[in-house]
Amino acid sequence: MSKNLNILQEQAKVSMLKTDYEKQKTDYLPKIYFSTGLDYSNSGDTFSTTLKDTNKDDAGGNVALGLEMPLYDYNKSTKLEEAKLEVLKQKAFVNDVKNEESNNFETILTKIDTYKKHIKTIEDNIKLYDELIKANEISNQAGMTSMYDLDILRNTKEINLYDLKINDISILQQYVKLHFQTRN
Predict the structure, then answer these.
(1) Residue 27 CB partners (closer than 8 Å, separation 6+)
(2) What was the pLDDT predicted at 73?
C-alpha cells in the first residue's frame, strides 16, 4: 500500500496544497527589501586645454532599505480558510483512496487465493479421472463399458488440464494488476 501510485499521487497533491496555503499566509506578512545601484559615466567633454586630464568622469551609487506592510484585506481570513479547507479536503480524499485501494488489494488477494484453491480441486479431480480412466479401460476391454464412456472421461480430464492453465493465467493477471498499481 505504501507504494501504490494513486495514493502517492494524492499525497503529493496534499503537499502541494500545503505549500500553497503557506505561501498565501506569507503574502500577508510585512516584507523588508534591500537594493543597491551603481552607475558610472565618462564623457569626452574638455574643461580646459591646459590640463592633462580633460575628460569628465562621473560616478554615483545608491542604497535603499525598505519595509512593505500589506494593507488590511477583509478577504484575508476567508482566503486562508479556503486554502486550509482545501488541504483538509485533500487529506480526507487521500484516506478514501487508501480505503479503496486497500479493498482492491484485498479483492485481488482473495481472487488469487480462490484460484489457488480451485487449482487444488482440479488437481484432485485429475487424479480421480486418471483412476477412473484406468478402471474404465479395464472394464472396456472386458466389454462391460463402451468406448464412448472412456472418451468422455478422457475429454473431461483434458478440459480440467486446460482449466489448470486458465487458472494459472488468471493468477498471473492478478499479480500484474498488483504490479501496475505500485511503484517499483
Answers:
(1) 70
(2) 78
